[in-house]
Structure formats: structure tokens, C-alpha cells
């Protein structure tokens, strides 16, 4: 440490001059060793402090930054936290771990009591025939589903098989027969009953009584059966009393990962049964769909009112299709339930939607009508900024491009005063009469079944004079009346954007549905670009119709219009036929033609100034009523309009049905 | 050896030191750009007040709302006032950095934000995430008043208020709901029995004592104390609204009971009258609002609102009240421009002023001007034929908002007293014949106009 010599490291860098300066400076200092040392340590210390302060600063800023960024994943933290928080809810030993179940089966009465509480009692006459099925939660004993399958009638056993297959393993199943439950109980159903462990079920005979309690997937917990002694008499009433041991809550529930969605799912699945794979433990069907958003969605902020009754399975199916449609915004959906029913509310909660219950105040159709009014008023109250509302019913499937269809056409409702509504449903759009998903029509009737209502129409015209409860009117019939419609028209697509799957409605029976709704065409193509939407405006549409009629080929009017050969076997042509229509309300020939074409014939639908448009064999087919229609001028003088005689009135046709 | 070592060490230290210095510079720059103004201005110690609990709670809350897309804006009266005073400063800080916490560090118990419920897309789970971030939250829910007017609907409850506490500071989130009539509504903060009354000093809350109604404000984004927030574009207007925001709901249940007893008039004439009266009221409201003149529903129109939540079909006119100090001569011209010609003018500004305008379809608009006395308020009446003056006395009242025929309008808060003064205790019973000079219990003769003044105080058109 004695001499401070230039370091060999530094040497090569120093310039010659510099070096001499350095040396003189150095030799000067050699004499002041103490000072030199002091400087040295000072420098070292200073450098050390700088380094430490720097490190500290870096650590500090880093902490500040990480603090600021700590939130991107709070959800994950939250889930973890909840994982710890949620202990097995009803662990172990409540005072009672056994349910005491009573099941009664007889000709005129069935009942089921669980722990002394009657959960099913049916002694109504002419009702509730068949096999009653009740599903209990094996951990709580709560009733999760209640169904009756009239297996005396055809196809009901298929519904029962479908239902029983959907029930999760381990649930408690209770079956009891009222009156008759074997006539149409086919082999598949019997095999299923056998697989449940039932002895008497598979051998159930004419007018036997039968009561059964078992766990799905075994074991049987009790069964009683009484054979009917003769064709004309019933089996003796049977009363089955049995104990059902409850299992622990963990066993009764699935172990889905703990997310907000699955919490909804769990709440739903522990309450109700019969919704299939939504409650499947292994691979549950999703309850969130996130369909593609629509570019430039004009109906994003249009509220959607779903009008529902107590058909939770329908509602479930309907909401699934609605939430899968492109461009749907779930927070705009409100489900209005007619009555204080729990299960439809559970379905609404499963999908995380808004549900509103409506206390029944009136009977039958008038009640539906009051429910509609309350729902529409509420919709515009909840969304005061909305200019339109979409009205749907619980028994509709919604096409994937439903909102795209509305988004492309809704401006018409704003710009054209002569419009009454836009509807997704074409009354005459059957598999064999609809073809072009890009085509729209104007019609004088109001089809409903998925439609858009203008707020000003509702607030200024309809709401103030809506039929009061004591008038037992159907809301849709009322809306179709000339006083309300005032000559305005609705826009409809050729291929419907909704599908009416409902059967057990207020207004319909099964046969009726089969005949009039099942074969309806329903668009399944996403993102259809509608053609020439602005030609649907009042004046433009007339131009369009005249153009169509001018280029249409006139069909051979000597042939029978009911026969397939009435139209040539071409594709993509436009044909026109003229039928007799003496006055604006003379639909005699049209009704007969509709009947033989197998389209809607119960009342007149889909007409526009005496013109009907549909497709036959992939050709556009126009029907003009002569001379009532203003388009009669297009009829060549040589053509005689077709006249079809109505059949003599004696047929037992299902005319009981009023409308859709 | 040691010599070399020493030099090496020195060189190394110098090197690391300068490397750190460079790094520090770089890091600091980087940090600043990410924080955009919220960063440390020099080093520690020069930022004043930024460690206050208020500031930290607000910061955390803003982080929460922006990450969860909760549409909130600041409505805290204290802070809005400060912002309003120092508006230039708030505007200019958006790029630079703040050295002093001037707004959010002001000592107070609450910071108030408003939530625009109709813009809220993911309501679910938000509450839990807030709690997970360290907030202790309270949610106050109630049934939806927008469904009240409709017979027998019961829906999901809607949130009205959230109060989230972080350490000693609390964020009060007032939920604003959209209502028919283009305004925002917030509910009454009513504590349910099981709620801890000491959770926060509830008495000091500035919102929620009553339900409130506000014009829908336009919003702007500003940076306040290094935090980006939305505030009303016109903070002054919003601040002015606060003390007069009290809202009262129509008494829908009583109205239903009334209609059960007296059946609604659904004839074509009644419906036509209601429609034109509604249009007249809407036109009048628009005209007066444009002039900035405050008015309220008076007489028959007020009775219709209070008793049946609707326009009384046989009332034949629309009645409004205006305080005489709000009178502007422009009123008459404005109404004329709106297509409502003056029908008659009684009295003068100093005494018993009353204006009548002719609406469409023979519906009349009556505007009564109210004068204040020490213990009561009154408006005047004049009989055109005789020049007789009348005085209608009312107990003193203040004004509240309500919703009537899809509009946000004022009514006297003390409605029952107002109506009983005017119609007596039997106001619940519909009366079709009403004599303005004799029927009201609060009418007093008030002398006769001197003949010389008739030309001025009795003008008929």
C-alpha cells in the first residue's frame, strides 16, 4: 500500500501527455498519505451507498408497480378464497336421515306423501290418467320434478323414457298409476322400468294398480302391485309405505369447478330434475353461449320480453336457443312469468336473466291478454330509452340469425308509418312452400310468434285501449282487428326465424300442432344477408310486385291447382295463378287452395292486397284474387280465374283450435 | 496484489454505480410512462398526502371499477365543488404529474360515486371481487319502482346503494336507474333490521336520505390527483340539483284501490282528453324548462296525480303553479311561439297573477302564480265579470320531483296538506261539479279590483 503506481490496466489508455500530468499529480499526493487514504475510503463508501440506494429504489418502484397491477386477476383470487370458504354444507348427521314415503295407487286417486307432507294428490275425474312420476333429491328429500305420463295414449311412454333417462343417478324415483297406465306402455319403456329394478312395472297390465319407490341406478326401496281381475274392473288400491335413507349432500352433488356459472348450475340442479345434460356431472352442457356479436347491430339495445307461463321445460329450450342467437344481449332480456311459479323462475336464474312474476288476475285467454299488457308496459318502463321491443313466447325456437334479421329490417319500422310490426314468423312458410331466407314480404295479417313492437304504437294506441280483463279476448286476435291494425302491414321473412314447438298450450291440441306447425320451415343458416330491404317500403313494394307480376309466367289454368303438376318441374321461375275473389273478404277459393296445398287454412294469412306469395317446387308462386285485388289488371283476358267449391260442412276437422 | 485489487474494486464500483445510475434513469422514465402522471414526481417525500386512506380507497375503487367495467362517475359534492373551483388544474394535469393530493385527500367519511345501472353488463360476481380486494361491502336492495305502476308484478330486486369500506374510508356507490321521462333515479337508503348500524356513519351520507331524481348528465373524463375519473360535464349544474333532488313516487297502490272503487273512465272521449292533456303538459313542461322556470302540478292536475296517478278525464284543463319570483315576461311569448296563444291574463305581477293559454282540442292550460306570506303561500283568482278578487291559501310547501305521464315534474312535497287545503278532507271522492269561487275550502274573498285597473288586470283574448 505504500506506492500509488499507475495500474497496468489503466496504462494503455492514457495518452502520453496525460500520463505525465497524472504522474505529477500522483507524486504530489504521495506526501499526503492520510488525505489520500481518506479520499479513497470516501470514494468507496460513496460508491457503495449509491449502489445500495439504487437497489432500494428499484425495489421500491417495483413494489409500487406490482401494487398497481395487482388487480388483473382478482377473479382467480376470489375463486380460491371461495374454495376455502365453502365447507361441505350439510355435513353428516341431521336428526333424521330417513324419509318416510307413502305412495297410493288406485283407479280414481293417487297420492304421494313424504314425511307426512302430501307432495302429490290427484283425485280429479277424467284427469291425470297414467303413470305419475316424482323425483326426490336423495340428500334433502325435496321434490325436484313431478310429471304424469298418460301411457294409455300413444307416444306418452316415449316421453317417459326420455324423462327417466334424464334423471341423474342416485335420485329417488316414485311411480304410481292412476286409472290405466299400460295400454301404450311399450317394450322400451318396460325395459327401462326393469333396469330400475322394478318387478311389476315391466309386467304392468290393463288397469293394474302399481306403486314403486326406488333409487335411480338401484336399489329398489319398495314396490306394490295389484292385478286387475277382469277387463272391466280395476286392480285393488295399493298403499306403499317405505323408508328412504337419505344420502349425504356431497354424494348428491356434482363436483364442478367453482365458478359463477357453476354456482348457478348447482343451485338449479339441486332443485329441479328433468333438464338432461345441464346437470350432468361429467360433461355438463354449457349454460353460457357467447355467440358471435353482430357487426353494426341495430337491435343491441332493443329490450326482449319473453312471455312465459308454467312450462319450464319449454322455457329452458327457448332460452337456450335465444341465448345462442348471434347478436343477443342477455341484459336486455326479461322473462315475464304468468303466475307465482317457482320452476320457470329457476330456469331464468340458471341463465342469469331477469325474471318477473305476474299474479294471475283473470281467467284463461283474458289472463294471457292481461299478462301481455303488464309485460309490455313493464318492458317499456324498465327500458325507457327503447323505441322498440321484441316480443317472444316460451314455446319458440329462435333462429341463429334472428337478431341479424331484425337488425337489417328494423329501420323499416322507423321509416315507414304504414307498418304495424316486423314478425319472424311466416304463417305460410312450410317446408314445401318456403325457400328463400333472404326474401321478405309485406302482409296484412299479424303473425306474432316472435315480433317487434314499436313503442309509440303501444303507448299511444294499444295500451290505452287494451281489452280489460272482463272482456275475454285474445290479445292477438284483438291486435288483428281492423280498429287496431288500421290497414297497416307487417314485414315477414319467407323462411321463418322462429319455430313454434309448443304442444300443450292453451289453444292447441297435439293433432293440431302436428298438422299446422311441425312442418314449418325454420332458418338455420347464420348471417343471412337480406335482399333489397328498402323495397319493402310502401311505395317501393308496389313497384316490386308489379315487376314480379310482369315477369311471371301465367300457369295453365285448366289444370287442377291442387295437383303437383300444376307447376312445371322447373327451378327459380316465377309463376302466377289467378283465383276467384269477388270482394275483399271473399276467401272461398283461397281457403280451398290453402287446404290442398297443406298450408294454413283456418283463417286467411299472409295476403297483401289480394296477393299471396309462396314457393312451390323451388319456384316463386304468386296467387292473385280476381277481381278484388288491384293486381287483377295483370290477368291476361284469356285466363279464367280458378274457382274451388268449398266442401259440404260436415267434416270433423280440428276447427276447435282458434289460432296460434 | 493488493494494489491491483484496490484499483479493480474501485473501477468495478464505479462501473456498477454508473450502470445503476443509467438503469435508474431508464426505469424511472418507464415507470412514469406507465403510471402516466400518477408516478413519483422526483423521489420520495415530495408527494404530499398521497398515502391518505381516502386517496388509497378511491384509487382501489377506481381500479376495481375499471377492471370490472362498472360504469361509475364521481358525484361527491365536496370533491365536485373543489374540482369546479380548480377546473383548469384538473384539465391540465392529464399529461403531467401531480405533486400534491388536493382533492381526494381532503378529510371526509365518504366518497360518493354514481353507478349507471343500465350500462352495467356484468353485474354478477362484482360484489365478491370487491370484498376480495379488501373492501367490506354493503348492498341495499329494493323492489323495482318501475314495476309498481303495473298491476301485480313482482320482479327481481334491484340494487339501490352499495357502501364499500376500506380501512377508515368508505365509498358510497349510488345506483342510478333510468326512468321514463329521460331522467335518472336513485332509491332511498333504508336499512334493514339485520344491518349493522355502525358499519359506517350513515347519518353523514349525502345521498339516500330520500329517493332522488336527476337530469341525465353528460360526462367527461378528467384526471384528479393522478386518478382518472368520469365526472358530470357541468359539475355546477349537478351540484345545484343535489339539494332539490328529492323524489316521491306516485301512490300506485292507493290509485289502484281508487279505481276499484270508482272504475276508470275508458270512454273514447276520456282517452282523447287524457291524450291531449298529456301532450299539452309535455309541451308546457318543455317550454318552461327551456326558459329555466320552475313549475309544479297544481289543483286538479295535482289531485289527479296524487289520487289516481293519471289525468282526471273530466277536469278539462291542465293546472300548473309557478312562484311569482320566477315569473318572466318571456313566458307569454314562449308559449305563443309553442302554439299556445294567451287566452286570458288576470292580475299583475304584484298581485294575483294568473295566465291561461289555449291548447289544442279545447284543453286549457292554467298557470297560477304563488305568493309567499310569512306563514303560508297563496295564489289569486279574479272573476272577470265583477272584478272580484279571491285568495287561495296553502300551508308553506317545498317542491319534490315525481313522475307523471312519462315526465319528470315537480309537485309539492307536502302533497296531502296541499290537496286538503284545496279540496278538503274529502278529496278522495270524485266531484264533477266544482265552483272555483265557492267550492275550495281555502278560498277567501280578497276585495275588488279598482275599475281603473281593469284594463290591465282583466285581459281576455
Explain what you see.
Chain A: Residues 129-218 form the ILEI/PANDER domain. Chain A: It is found in: Golgi apparatus membrane. Chain A: This is Protein O-linked-mannose beta-1,2-N-acetylglucosaminyltransferase. Chain A: Belongs to the glycosyltransferase 13 family. Chain A: Its EC number is 2.4.1.-. Chain B: InterPro entries: FKTN/MNN4/W02B3.4-1, FKTN_N, LicD/FKTN/FKRP_NTP_transf. The complex is a heterodimer of chains A (660) and B (461). With 660 residues, chain A is of the alpha+beta class. Chain A has three domains: 98-251, no CATH class; 304-534, Spore Coat Polysaccharide Biosynthesis Protein SpsA, Chain A; 537-634, no CATH class. In chain A, the strands form five sheets. Chain A has an eight-stranded mixed sheet, with helices on both faces. In chain A, strand 2 and strand 3 form a beta hairpin. In chain A, helix 7 (260-269) packs antiparallel against helix 9 (342-350) and helix 8 runs parallel beside helix 9 (342-350). The relative contact order of chain A is 0.06. The model of chain A is unreliable at 6-15, 68-94, 504-508 and 651-660 (pLDDT under 50). Chain B is an alpha+beta fold. The model of chain B is unreliable at 35-46 (pLDDT under 50). Chain B folds into two domains: 53-244, 2-Layer Sandwich (Beta Polymerase, domain 2), CATH 3.30.460; 252-460, Beta Polymerase, domain 2, CATH 3.30.460. In chain B, the strands form four sheets. In chain B, strands 11, 12, 13, 14, 15, 16, 17, 20 and 21 form a nine-stranded mixed sheet that branches. In chain B, strands 1, 2, 3, 5, 6, 7 and 8 form a seven-stranded mixed sheet that branches. Chain B has a two-stranded antiparallel ribbon with strand order 9-10. At the A-B interface, helix 2, helix 3, strand 12 and helix 10 of A face helix 1, helix 2, helix 5, strand 4 and helix 8 of B.
Amino acid at each position: 500500500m505504500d506506492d500509488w503506481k499507475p495500474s497496468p490496466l489503466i496504462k494503455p489508455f492514457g495518452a502520453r501527455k496525460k500520463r505525465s500530468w497524472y504522474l505529477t499529480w500522483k507524486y504530489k499526493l504521495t506526501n499526503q498519505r492520510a488525505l489520500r487514504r481518506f479520499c479513497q475510503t470516501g470514494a468507496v463508501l460513496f460508491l457503495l451507498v449509491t449502489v445500495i440506494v439504487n437497489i432500494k429504489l428499484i425495489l421500491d418502484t417495483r413494489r409500487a408497480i406490482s401494487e398497481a397491477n395487482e388487480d388483473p386477476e382478482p377473479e382467480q383470487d376470489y375463486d380460491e378464497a371461495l374454495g376455502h370458504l365453502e365447507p361441505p354444507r350439510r355435513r353428516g348427521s341431521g336428526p333424521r336421515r330417513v324419509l318416510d314415503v307413502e305412495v297410493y295407487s288406485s283407479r280414481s286417486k293417487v297420492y304421494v306423501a313424504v314425511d307426512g307432507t302430501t307432495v302429490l294428490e290427484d283425485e280429479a275425474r277424467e284427469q291425470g290418467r297414467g303413470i305419475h312420476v316424482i323425483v326426490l333429491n336423495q340428500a334433502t328429500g325435496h321434490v325436484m320434478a313431478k310429471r304424469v305420463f298418460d301411457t294409455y295414449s300413444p307416444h306418452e311412454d316415449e316421453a317417459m323414457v326420455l324423462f327417466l333417462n334424464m334423471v341423474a343417478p342416485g335420485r329417488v324415483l316414485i311411480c304410481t298409476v292412476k286409472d290405466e297406465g299400460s295400454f301404450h306402455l311399450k317394450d322400451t319403456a318396460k325395459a327401462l322400468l326393469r333396469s330400475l329394478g322394478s318387478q311389476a312395472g315391466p309386467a304392468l297390465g290393463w288397469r293394474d294398480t302399481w306403486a314403486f319407490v326406488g333409487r335411480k341406478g338401484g336399489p329398489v326401496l319398495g314396490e306394490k302391485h295389484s292385478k286387475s281381475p277382469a277387463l272391466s274392473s280395476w286392480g285393488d288400491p295399493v298403499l306403499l309405505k317405505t323408508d328412504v335413507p337419505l344420502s349425504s349432500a356431497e354424494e348428491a352433488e356434482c363436483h364442478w369447478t367453482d365458478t359463477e356459472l357453476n354456482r348457478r348450475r348447482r343451485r338449479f340442479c339441486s332443485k329441479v330434475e328433468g333438464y338432461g345434460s345441464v346437470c350432468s356431472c361429467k360433461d355438463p352442457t354449457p349454460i353460457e353461449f357467447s355467440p358471435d356479436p353482430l357487426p353494426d347491430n341495430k337491435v343491441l339495445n332493443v329490450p326482449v320480453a319473453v312471455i312465459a307461463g308454467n312450462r319450464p321445460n319449454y322455457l329452458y329450450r327457448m332460452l337456450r336457443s335465444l341465448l345462442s342467437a348471434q347478436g343477443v344481449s342477455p341484459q336486455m332480456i326479461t322473462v315475464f312469468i304468468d303466475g307465482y311459479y317457482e320452476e320457470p323462475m329457476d330456469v331464468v336464474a340458471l341463465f342469469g336473466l331477469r325474471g318477473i312474476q305476474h299474479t294471475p288476475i283473470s281467467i284463461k285467454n283474458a289472463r294471457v291478454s292481461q299478462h301481455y299488457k303488464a309485460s309490455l308496459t313493464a318492458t317499456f318502463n324498465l327500458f325507457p330509452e327503447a323505441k322498440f321491443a321484441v316480443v317472444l313466447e316460451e314455446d319458440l325456437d329462435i333462429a341463429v340469425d334472428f337478431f341479424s334479421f331484425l337488425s337489417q329490417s328494423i329501420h323499416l319500422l322507423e321509416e315507414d308509418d304504414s307498418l304495424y310490426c316486423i314478425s319472424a314468423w311466416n304463417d305460410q312458410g312450410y317446408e314445401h312452400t318456403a325457400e328463400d331466407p333472404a326474401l321478405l314480404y309485406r302482409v296484412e295479417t299479424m303473425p306474432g310468434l316472435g315480433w317487434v313492437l314499436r313503442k309509440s304504437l303501444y303507448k299511444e294506441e294499444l295500451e290505452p285501449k287494451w281489452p280489460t280483463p272482463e272482456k275475454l279476448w285474445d290479445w292477438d286476435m284483438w291486435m288483428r282487428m281492423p280498429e287496431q291494425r288500421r290497414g297497416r302491414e307487417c314485414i315477414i321473412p319467407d323462411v321463418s326465424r322462429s319455430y313454434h314447438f309448443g304442444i300443450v298450450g292453451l289453444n292447441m291440441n297435439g293433432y293440431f300442432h302436428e298438422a299446422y306447425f311441425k312442418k314449418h320451415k325454420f332458418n338455420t343458416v347464420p348471417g343471412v344477408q337480406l335482399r333489397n330491404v328498402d323495397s319493402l317500403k310502401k311505395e317501393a313494394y308496389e313497384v316490386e310486385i308489379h315487376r314480379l307480376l310482369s315477369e311471371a309466367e301465367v300457369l295453365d289454368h285448366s289444370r287442377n291447382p291442387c295437383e303437383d303438376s300444376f307447376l312445371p318441374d322447373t327451378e327459380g321461375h316465377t309463376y302466377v295463378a289467378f283465383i276467384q275473389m269477388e270482394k275483399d273478404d271473399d276467401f272461398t277459393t283461397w281457403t280451398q287452395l290453402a287446404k290442398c296445398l297443406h298450408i294454413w287454412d283456418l283463417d286467411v294469412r299472409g295476403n297483401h292486397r289480394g296477393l299471396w306469395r309462396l314457393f312451390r317446387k323451388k319456384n316463386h308462386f304468386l296467387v292473385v284474387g280476381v277481381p278484388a285485388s288491384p293486381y287483377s289488371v295483370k290477368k291476361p283476358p284469356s285466363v279464367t280465374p280458378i274457382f274451388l267449391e268449398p266442401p259440404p260442412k260436415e267434416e270433423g276437422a280440428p276447427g276447435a283450435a282458434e289460432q296460434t | 496484489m493488493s494494489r491491483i485489487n484496490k484499483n479493480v474494486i474501485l473501477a468495478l464500483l464505479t462501473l456498477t454505480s454508473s450502470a445503476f445510475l443509467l438503469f435508474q434513469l431508464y426505469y424511472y422514465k418507464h415507470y412514469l410512462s406507465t403510471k402516466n402522471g400518477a408516478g413519483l414526481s422526483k423521489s420520495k417525500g415530495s408527494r404530499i398526502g398521497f398515502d391518505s386512506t381516502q386517496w388509497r380507497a378511491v384509487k382501489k375503487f377506481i381500479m376495481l371499477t375499471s377492471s370490472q367495467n362498472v360504469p361509475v362517475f364521481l358525484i361527491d359534492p365536496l370533491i365536485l365543488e373543489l374540482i369546479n373551483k380548480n377546473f383548469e388544474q384538473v384539465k391540465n394535469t392529464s399529461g403531467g404529474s401531480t405533486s400534491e393530493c388536493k382533492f381526494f385527500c381532503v378529510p371526509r367519511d365518504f366518497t360518493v360515486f354514481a353507478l349507471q345501472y343500465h350500462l352495467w353488463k356484468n353485474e354478477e360476481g362484482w360484489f365478491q371481487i370487491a370484498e376480495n380486494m379488501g373492501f367490506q361491502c354493503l348492498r341495499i336492495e329494493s323492489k323495482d319502482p318501475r314495476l309498481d305502476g303495473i298491476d301485480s308484478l313482482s320482479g327481481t330486486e334491484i340494487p339501490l346503494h352499495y357502501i364499500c369500506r376500506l380501512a377508515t374510508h368508505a365509498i358510497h356507490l349510488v345506483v342510478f336507474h333510468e326512468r321514463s321521462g329521460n331522467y335518472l333515479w336513485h332509491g332511498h337508503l333504508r336499512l334493514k333490521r339485520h344491518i349493522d348500524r355502525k358499519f359506517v356513519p350513515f347519518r353523514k351520507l349525502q345521498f339516500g336520505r330520500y329517493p332522488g331524481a336527476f337530469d341525465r348528465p353528460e360526462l367527461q373524463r378528467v384526471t384528479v390527483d393522478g386518478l382518472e375519473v368520469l365526472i358530470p360535464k357541468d359539475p355546477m349544474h349537478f351540484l345545484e340539483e343535489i339539494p332539490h333532488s328529492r323524489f316521491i313516487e306516485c301512490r300506485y297502490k292507493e290509485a289502484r284501490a281508487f279505481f276499484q272503487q270508482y272504475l276508470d273512465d275508458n270512454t273514447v272521449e276520456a282517452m282523447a282528453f287524457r291524450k291531449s292533456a298529456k301532450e299539452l303538459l309535455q309541451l308546457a313542461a318543455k317550454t318552461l324548462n327551456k326558459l329555466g322556470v320552475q313549475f309544479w302540478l297544481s289543483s286538479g292536475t295535482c289531485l289527479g296525480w296524487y289520487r289516481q296517478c293519471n289525468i282526471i278525464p273530466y277536469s278539462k284543463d291542465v293546472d300548473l303553479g309557478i312562484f311569482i319570483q320566477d315569473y318572466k315576461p318571456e313566458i307569454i311569448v314562449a308559449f305563443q311561439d309553442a302554439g299556445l296563444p294567451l287566452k286570458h291574463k288576470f292580475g299583475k305581477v304584484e298581485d294575483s297573477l294568473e295566465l291561461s293559454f289555449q291548447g289544442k282540442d279545447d284543453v286549457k292550460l292554467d298557470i297560477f302564480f304563488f305568493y309567499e306570506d310569512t306563514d303560508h303561500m297563496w295564489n289569486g283568482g279574479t272573476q272577470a265579470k265583477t272584478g272580484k278578487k279571491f285568495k287561495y291559501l296553502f300551508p308553506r310547501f317545498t317542491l319534490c320531483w315525481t313522475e307523471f305521464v312519462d315526465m319528470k315534474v315537480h309537485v309539492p312535497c307536502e302533497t296531502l296538506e296541499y290537496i286538503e287545503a284545496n279540496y278538503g278532507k274529502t278529496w278522495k271522492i270524485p266531484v264533477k261539479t266544482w265552483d272555483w269561487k265557492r267550492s275550495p275550502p281555502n278560498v277567501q274573498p280578497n276585495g275588488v279590483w279598482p275599475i281603473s285597473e281593469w284594463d290591465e288586470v282583466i285581459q281576455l283574448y
